[in-house]
Amino acid sequence: MKQSLSRGRFVAGTAGVAALTFGSGPYVIAAPTKEITIGLNVPQSGPYAEQGTDQLRAYHLAIDEINAKGGIMGMKIKTSEGDDQTKPSVATENAQRMIDRDGAVMVTGGSSTATAVAVSGLCQQKKTIFMATLTHGDETTNQACHKHTFRRYNDAYMSAQSLARTLVTKYGTGKWFHITADYAWGHSVYDNITAVVEPKGAKTIKNVLTPFPGTSDFSPMLQQAQAAKPDVLVLTQFGGDMVKCLNQAASFGLTKSTKILVPLVDEYMAKGTKDNFDNVVSTAPWYWEYHQTKYPGAKRFVDAFSAKYPGLKPSNGAETAYADIYIYKMAVEKAGSIDPAKVIAVLEGTKFQFTKEQEWYRPQDHQGVNSCLVVEGIPESQRGPGGFGFAKVLEVHDGPAVVAPLNSLSCKMETA
Amino acid sequence: MEAFFQAMLGGLILGLIYIAIAVGLTIIFGTLRLVNFAHGAFYAIGAYIGLVVAQHIGVGWAFIAAPIGVALFAVFLDRVLLRSFYDKAPTAQLLVTFGIALVVEESLRLIFGATTQQYAMPDALQGSVTLGPITYPAYRLLFAAGVIVMLVLVWLFIERTNYGLIVRAGIRDRIMVQLLGGNIQQASSVVFALGAAIAGLVGAAATPIYSIDPATGFAFLVPSFVVVVVGGLGSFWGAVLGGILIGELQSLTNLVYAPASQVVIYLCMALVLLLRPQGLLGESEVIRQ
Amino acid sequence: MIKTADDLRFTLLCALGIIVFPFVLHPLGGYSGLATQIAIMSVASIGFNLLLGYAGTLSYGHAMFYGGGGYVAAILMLRFMPNSPNLWLAVLGATLFAAVLALLVGALTVRLYGIYFALLTLAFGQMIYFIVEQAKDWTNGDDGLQSVPNALLPIGPWKIDLTTQLPAVNLGPFGDLSDLHLWYVLAGIVLLLVLVFFRALTRSQFGEVLDAIRENEQRSTLIGFNASAYRLAAFTISGALTGLAGALRALYDGSVTVDAVGIDRSGSFVIYTVIGGVQTIFGPVAGTAVIMFLENVLSAKTPAWRLIEGLIFVGVIVFLPRGLSTIFKQREISPSRVFARSLRLSTEEPKAVIEPAREGHRAGPMSIIETFKLGKLFGHFAAVHDVDFKVDPGELRAVIGPNGAGKTTFFNLLSGTIAPSEGTINYKGRDVSRMSGTSRVHQGIAKAFQTASIYPDQTVRQNCRLAALAKVQGSFALQVFRRSQRLDDVDALAERAMSRLELLEVADTRAGDLSHGDKKRLDIAIALATQPQILLLDEPVAGMSKDEARKTEALIRRLSTEMTVLVIEHDMEMVMGLSDTITVLHQGTVLATGTPAEIRANAKVQEAYLGGHSEAELAHP
User: Fold this and answer.
1) In this complex, which chains have at least 3 CB pairs below 8 Å with chain C?
2) Would you call C263 an interface residue with chain B, using a CB distance cutoff of 8 Å?
3) Chain B, nearest residue to A249 by Cα
4) What is the pLDDT of residues A81-102, one digit of tens each?
5) What is the pTM of this model?
6) Complete edge-to-edge strand list for the sheet that includes strand A149-151
């Protein structure tokens, strides 16, 4: 909540955005601009608050680093921040405020596919770049794709493809029971997983939907799972919901009797579920312990993060937040302008490397193409200081191998 | 069949949790005729006191500190603010307690942050218990047993003590009590503090299961109102019956047709208000203001 | 809606305010989108205030209309006109939907009051919320509907792009005219129209009756207003306005999610309206602006903004602004209830009828009102039972009896305030036992209460005009534009009633400031203004001074030459002097009926009275 509310907010960024939004001629930077505003729209309350808070740490790290080195093309980055409460309505209101009130030239954030899709629609309307971070549902770059939205994080399709390759050998087929968060992401994950494992012989016995956000008691669903005696229990829950759900599952004895699968995990979910996460298989786009040994960019990031936030390691959401700021910087500098059309053109056609292997966005749907890790939880006692070393990497799948084929997409990208 | 029994057990325990919150709400209404929208705030304060005490002193102490702390807060609230609203119209009470709930929720957000927090139950209670074909979390069973013990104590308080006399008389005929000149002021404070303390205790005890964030109090308040309305505003046994009814209804609907499991309890509430506004066990009284 | 210079002034003032508002907001840290949002939400708050401030009932489920309107608008745009979206149709459809929903929900809820009404609206609100959340095929569940087309507004052959900016004009510290888009112009025009409509409504006949019902529902019902119908109409209009706002907001945002139908949204209307001040036209607008300003501007400066909002809310309620006080007043428990309560203390078994009504009067063709075996049970206690009673047209009948004999209950049965448990009431040969009190007033049965039931905050003239209005326009009329001041026949009726009760001198006094005796006579005047054929007077002289009582007695005598008068009275001197016939009630049933002389001589009556409390009354005829 640091942004100032001075008159100045209409001077630079807004003038540009306004001119763009209402199409009154070609975009020109009116005067030498000293600052640009970026909107950081992440949950600081609600079930995904820990993920949102960690992304915010990474944003600040990246922005501080960039500002210390003179900013983006000489423009210092200012932030406009909002707690989206993991609710689409609040997320859109925040983004509206960031763009209208503070003149944000780019909005970034996510943590829920529902909020990401909502903000994406608004940013398209307002012709403002949206760098979606922690959104995993396919929709963001598929059914609800937009010209101004870019998502680097793995999507559910990629996770399911990756899991499938590792899973069937590990879990076999048998009876599968799903407890799924009832919103875009949950549906997307469920569709992808069943599409992958059913042809191999897995039998889906039931999918119970849980209201999102706002489910605090998973016992009715867990009891149904208990009664059904499945071989595999898929908990498609994320953040604090996954913590509650897995812990409650453990108290019903399900972690002992059933193999548990969580489609997507991060450091904080593993910490919250402690030993209940032992042996649980999941996916992650990035894992500090793995990547820091392979890529110098990742190592620099992890070290800087731990230096700025002693005792903490970056989660995979933080990594994507950090990278997104640098990717935007790279694109603006290459375009030589903050004109969204030019920035989009760069993002659609450039390969880059920061904290992972070399990667890119597909111009057809703006999905980031990069690798996906399949991980398995280890006991709390083996996780090291702070409990951040939560898993072992079972397998790494290359982005191009697991990303959804272009001909399967229903994305209809706008021309501008 | 096993699923059915599990759902029944789940519904019973859910019902007991609802009853635990609703019983304070109903005795406060019965005695003070106060419609307390701030009751959820008592739950939340209890949960946060429990959280702090459990993290710094010990889980056992949390269950003692939470009800005492909340009772003190309730007495304070009663003295400085609510007392002047006792004889105002219900709408006024509803608004002022709604305002208090807002202030408490936001204060908690400022003090403890907006994230969801939880404290671990003692290791001994983390496991599950197997009863015939059913496996159930040990802590939930203990929680349910605790609620039953608490209900018995509250019942004894109402039936066997002088304050309880005023509670009973108050439920039946407030005017009579006033005519008889019972020390209603003092009794009101005691009952208000007791109702609040119960909510605080339940907040502390339920947090290992549900975890807590500043908005949880209000989230629990709404179904408690359903329970109290269905059972009968002001009726002890009404809250008990209403709680079990709503808990089972929700649990069984979840089994049969899950998407309706929330709608059905509000439908139930609406039907009761339309057909028997005093509730299933409530005494017929002035429904009009 | 705009008829007088005053109306025009108001309209221009509002228009000016709406034009200036965004530029006042600008130096405070506001921005263009915020002004548009405030304008739209103000419409919802104004609608909510009609219910809270004017109808006096607190709804805790208004988000169902707001969100309902939003969803219908979005669905119409996305599903039904994907190729040629028409903003007008979406808004119209949504408003209509909200009105119908409000009519249906209102029909079920307006019977309840206070907390029960609030809880029932809450229950319906929650039901709608979960239905919206689960009806995923239409609403997209928890994700909500996105990318609703919202740019083009068709006007005639043109399509106006609402995202167009106004021309650039630098206004110095107040920003620039081009900060605004046409969306604000649209929202501002809607707000202006709603303000003008709302002002007309509150000053109309409809608004006047709504005020009366809020102030004294019991009286309003018994001068012939159908209170439920009025409240239902208010609920429907309120819901429609809230739905209109919901539709505009969904279209402006280009999205709508389940939060729009959620309980927090319902609560926000309560907050906006209470903070701004109810029963005022601008209060809700001010409250909406203040809170939304806090939310959008202060939120950037301090995380405590919501706490500040809560403290303001509690502060407003505790340090009661005048607007809230009429809602907060504890309403009187209706007399019949108090009576029932006092009866419950008596445990004596009711006795059988000692003497039936005079032979030969039964079922006479001449009678104006007649009861057969009339009875009323309160729980297990028969307050009135087996009453056979018959009054000839033009008669002046006194009903007497010891305290607790059932006299007031009997009158309540005749006036229709309570329904009989058994037996029938025939009025002019027609069974009216199941007819509501309101309808009976229109049939010619009017009542003055034991404790004067008047509108204390209005003048004596207005009190009488209300009754006359009910007579002239019937039990319900949706006159939201016409002002009753323009009705000559109403004035004439009121004038006559006041003159008959000798109240002309105090015609412009506030009724609450009258002396006790004048209040009681005003109550009779109100009853008289409904032009009754039977006038029921419950202890008309109780508590009056000797002089006042004698004056009132003379008035009653004069009235009785024009209509049938039934009077309950304890003053035996008056009863014996005044009445043609006397009916004695004892323990809920008729003990005797006869001329004053017959009654005075009746041994059973003497016994009943000697055994009762009123020995002295009978001893001094």
Assistant:
1) A, B
2) yes
3) B137
4) 999 988 899 999 999 999 988 8
5) 0.88
6) A76-83, A35-42, A104-109, A129-132, A149-151
